[in-house]
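User: Quick one: structure for sequence A, then sequence B.

Assistant: Sequence A:
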Amino acid sequence: MDKEIIKQIIIENQEFIKDVNLYERDNKLEKQGNYVLIGARRAGKTYTMLKYIKDTLSEGTDLSQILYINFEDERLIELKTNDLNQIIEAFRELFNDKPLIFLDEIQNIHGWEKFARRLADQNYQVFITGSNAQMLSREIATILGGRFQIYEVFPLSFEEYLKMNQLIPEKNWEYSSQRFEIRKLFETYFYFGGFPEINKFDEKKLWLRNLYSKIFFGDIITRYKIRNDFALKILVKKLAESVHDEITFTRIRNIIQSLGIKIGTATIIEYLSHLHESWLVFKIENYFAKITEKETSGKYYFIDNGILSLFLLNPETILLENIVALQLKRTYGNDFYFLKKNYEVDFYVPEEKLMLQVSYKLTKPETENREINAMQALSETVETRSMVIITLDIEKKVDSGKNKISFIPVWKWLLNFSN
């Protein structure tokens, strides 16, 4: 590999970073860590890396200390494992500084893992992104031997989505005319999700279909060499339709078999694992369930409302619950559950002692009473500090005895919850 070409790429990338304008994204990357950024296709892994670089520069790091390489650059197409160290050598010939190293989409370079480990061993700070089709969190953790932290990048939160649209909620925005702008943007976010690129396109459904096709065929069918793609398509559709329901492996197998498709429980388990590893869905468990029950049942949610909406007619009830689950996933990782023990509550966060119900419409008193009664009953079983019912547009407080229950519109909850 010609080292002069590498030098040219290094300088061009520094110029690109200096001039690029980026909106705000929540960033929890620590200054001294080594990171592998993983997550759904098009969720913004490269963007998160670039935002970290810009933040680092604004805090006083000189541009000459930044070594950013995007391995999708066609000039690097012939780069081999043995050439990787030339990147460091080329940088050292240009600058006398020890660089902060950012390796973007490196997964196609065979043997990159040993290179990254060696850099970390030499006390370089290293950031890596890669296509989720080749880089799964459990694989990466083993390959890199604990020298890197895994950082999961999600599609935009609602707060980030507003910032991308140049709207930053002011103090007391709930009472100003700004609330109308926020509510209008929420409608788009609710139905089309938070993948950053979707904002560029008028035909948002078409963009989402194309993205789902790439995930389905590129990250799942091709990677795992799945032959029965029709069965997998049906599985994804049935998961979408069952977002608010607890499902077991046996139940989903029976549903698919009832359509005349031959499929066994072992295959269902395998397919669900692939969907999870490709960041299409994630699972939460019943807080009260035994270990064996947690392994065989749960509730499945989608990584983005836009993709979920592709499978649904009249999707509002399901989308509302999914958007709440996704916000909890961003905030608490795997440490939230649903409650099911005679009664059922949609979500419970042990860390906050927070109980959440989700109800799109509360037009009938019996619906409201059912939600309240379930929370009251289960609050006798788990420690509860606060109870919230998330709605589309109802806001009020109800005194239920030892706890007051807050009814909060989802668009307001998403913003207040992130602060």
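Sequence B:
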Amino acid sequence: MELIRGTSTPEVWLASCEYLAKQSNHEDFDVILHVTDPSPLSKADAMVLRGVEDFLVKHGGASVYTVAETIFPLQDYLRGGKKAVFETYPERMAKIHAVRKDRQWGNYAMRILRQKDRDGTIYNPLKDLLKKIQDHGEYKATFELGRGHAMDGVETEQDDLEMAGDDIAIYHGAADRRPMYGHLPCLMHLSVKLDHGKVRMNATYRSHYYVQRLLGNLLGLARLQYFLAHEARLDIGPLTINSTYAKLDTGEGKWSMRDIKALLAESRQFYAVKETA
């Protein structure tokens, strides 16, 4: 167990990977990551982000930005505002899922944008959450993404027998209780809090690959946090992640531990320059 604090998402990514690099089997349980200022990026942060992106693309991994977009569709938001997030993106993803065998791609964003209520009514959890924040900003701990029934034809990790409530719909007991590996959801819970005019976010991960996924996850969650704060005219607070199992992964053999350590050393140099400037 370890608590790792930092100012930015790339800074925390680097510190957490350096920590795992020193652990037995390059893994640990209950690694808590706390980012105090998740949205802005310094010059050093941008260089680290670019280095990780280049590393992943070069070695055949998923782009940092691709991973981030599966959590929140920033490009749609920048092009068309919240209407594009609430309407355009889900419509496009529905068409993509209709022709894909793997419907889990982009599923975290779809889960917070389209669900079914107990009576079969389709609703938008993120839209409802935003309205709740805008209408009842005096409360601190009642702003969590709502649980609903799964959309037909969309793989969600949610038990349809559960009542609508205040937790994000992640784990699907009927579908996920048997598989031991591969298709189980990694993001298990997402909570939003208001703290004196700031939007805080807390995410819990069942399993977390720190090379292939973590920086993209941090970026995507920070973008979602920015969206809520910007639309509600609030400030952005800290972002906290609990990786209940954290692994410094080798991308199923696409890169080696030596490659990872070289990436970390190169990334650390960007912050070393900042500290001596």
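The domain at 2-276 is CATH 3.30.572 (Thymidylate Synthase; Chain A). Residues 146-150, 152-168, 172-181 have pLDDT under 50 and may be disordered.

User: Thanks, that's what I needed.
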